[in-house]
Design goal:
The chain has 59 residues and is mostly helical. Helix content is 75%, strand content 0%. The protein contains 2 helices and no strands. The radius of gyration is 15 Å and the shape is flat.
Amino acid sequence: MARRKRNESPERQALREMMAGYLKDNPVRDGKDVNSIMREMMSVILEGALDGELDEELG
């Protein structure tokens, strides 16, 4: 089944390219690799969100 092409924002497209580059340099061999990558991504996302919240609250 063919993948549908979506109208992506430039930011989303850049994110996809960055992730593809990461996966090229760090191949996924098993479920542990997937879990490790997802944990790292989640920590980066949460840290960024909390930093933004602190900046908004404290100025």
